[in-house]
Amino acid sequence: MKNIFTEILHSIHTVESRLNHVECKYNHIVREDDFGKVYGLLSDLCHETVAVKEWIDIFMKCDPSTLQVFRNILAEHLNNESSPVVITEFTNLKRIVETVINIKK
After folding, report:
1. Other CB atoms closer than 10 Å to residue 103's CB: what's the count?
2. What is the CA radius of gyration of the chain?
3. DSSP character for 62?
4. In terms of domains, do 76 and 30 share one?
5. Can you give the pLDDT at residue 31?
6. Which end of the chain is flanked by fewer CB atoms within 10 Å, N or C?
7. Do 73 and 27 share a structural domain?
8. Residue 44 and residue 82 in one domain
9. End-to-end CA separation in angstroms for the chain
10. What is the mean pLDDT of the chain?
């Protein structure tokens, strides 16, 4: 699993490198703000990828019964939550927990 995240991060850095090349070569065509937005998105993607890897590493250390407890708690909180941001975060965590549960079966 570690190799997957290494490959994802490598791919992101490859895109950054190519974007840098395009920015230098065609700076008269594309606005600097557009490049800034894309660099920001790539940076966010890197941070999110690292965060997902860390969550998976944490959950892989848990036994299946603990993972079930986490899943149930997340499901309960999702049923009672109204904030779209929190719902997205909890949904993503729940997916990670469910994926790890399936891996451990």
Report:
1. 11
2. 18
3. S
4. no
5. 72
6. C
7. no
8. no
9. 16
10. 88
Q: How far is CA 54 from the centre of its chain?
A: 10
Quick check: 105 pLDDT over 90?
no
pLDDT for 59 = 93
| Predicted local distance difference test score (pLDDT) of residue 7 | 87
Q: What count of other Cβ atoms lies within 10 Å of the Cβ of residue 93?
A: 19
Count of domains forming the chain: 2
How far is CA 51 from each of CA 25, 45, 46, 58, rounded to the nearest angstrom?
Answer: 33, 10, 9, 11
Range of the domain at 7: 1-61
Q: Which tokens hold the place of 70?
A: 């986490």
The mean pLDDT value for 90-99 works out to 93
How many other CB atoms are found less than 10 A from the CB of residue 22? 14
Can you tell me the mean pLDDT for 46-53? 90
34 contacts 72 by C-beta, under 8 angstroms: no
Q: Are residues 32 and 48 in the same domain?
A: yes
For residues 34-42, give the mean pLDDT. 84
